[in-house]
Amino acid sequence: MEKQLEQLRAQIDALDEQILKLLNERAKLAQAVGHVKGGSLIYRPEREAQVLRRLSEANAGPLPNEAVRLLFQEVMSACRALERSLTVAFLGPEGTFSEAAVIKQFGHAVVRLPAESIDEVFRQVERGEAGYGVVPVENSTEGAVSRTLDLLMQTPLKVCGEVMLRVRQQLLRRADTEGGPEGLDGIERVYSHAQSLAQCHEWLNRHLPKAERIPVVSNAEAARLAAQDPKAAAVAGEVAAERYGLAIVARDIEDEPGNTTRFLVLGPEDAAPSGRDKTSLVLSAQNRPGALLDLIAPFSEAGIGLNRLESRPARSGAWEYVFFIDIDGHRSEPRVAAVLDRVRANATLFKVLGSYPVAV
């Protein structure tokens, strides 16, 4: 058995050397692309989406597609950093799900800039303090993030990407505690944001019924407090565990396992076509019977899928609304462009927020 293990390890070592050589060859090609582009944008969401889709389709296993996507996202992130440093703003503090969304979309080789509010994320990108921003726009169980929608109406920024992040809540505590076989013994307090405590209500009832539940301003703050208290735990994400050096003693403890948050990537311009895209719009019409139908009917008539419709009160007066709509396709596609022209003619407010690749 030992001889067989040595042979297998020797083969792995040889493959690792080949992989390293190929990664550096890829990095050199990425640098060459950067020289050809000159000072133009180094982040091309449509190109990165195409790469990840192509590799997922070509993947024969045994690695799952999610692992392939994570590996190559980091490869592209490291290669991108060789061209120029990229700063991405997000709703802080560090260790939140918003930071996890940044990492999922851009990889670890970016400068992550936490902001105190969604408003500040927009401002940092508008002022050029960050190249891009990532903001939450909707949650599968809690609905739309109204502040993001309001700011999208006002900003000159474009939506150039989206991130779908499964909200996985972990129970974290200090690694040096005596937690017993399940890691739960001795926990007297559980810190987390109020929403996360609510999302894990039933799990906590079953496994830690006597522990005090203490709401704090963020899951990152909960992790920071748990790192200082051997009798405490935190409900937070894996990024918080990494940030504060905590052990994960129970994984995926949320009561609704499908809970997902959608984030938007904001930048100076929207993305070029990737082959599988969305376009986001904000529209308004006169307050009369049938006005909304007149706005959206052209999409159906052209066979263009409408996959999101969200209404918000308009600031112009009582009982008037604006509508946030996501449609299939890129604004530059002739069929989509023709329909947008028809919709524009019927709208009292018409703004294309951006076209971007569907989340991989």
UniProtKB/TrEMBL annotation:
SUPFAM superfamilies found in the cross-reference section: ACT-like, Chorismate mutase II, Periplasmic binding protein-like II
Coiled-coil parts of chain: 5-32
Family annotation (NCBIfam families): CM_P2, PRK11898.1
Positions of the Prephenate dehydratase domain: 87-268
Pathway(s): Metabolic intermediate biosynthesis; prephenate biosynthesis; prephenate from chorismate: step 1/1; Amino-acid biosynthesis; L-phenylalanine biosynthesis; phenylpyruvate from prephenate: step 1/1
Protein name in UniProt: Bifunctional chorismate mutase/prephenate dehydratase
Function: Catalyzes the Claisen rearrangement of chorismate to prephenate and the decarboxylation/dehydration of prephenate to phenylpyruvate.
Every Chorismate mutase domain range: 1-87
Subcellular location field: Cytoplasm
Entry GO terms, CC: cytoplasm
Site (Essential for prephenate dehydratase activity): 261
Catalysed reaction, written as an equation: prephenate + H(+) = 3-phenylpyruvate + CO2 + H2O; chorismate = prephenate
Sequence ranges assigned to domain ACT in this UniProt record: 280-357
Documented EC number(s): 4.2.1.51, 5.4.99.5
A Pfam family of this chain: CM_2
GO molecular function, one term: prephenate dehydratase activity
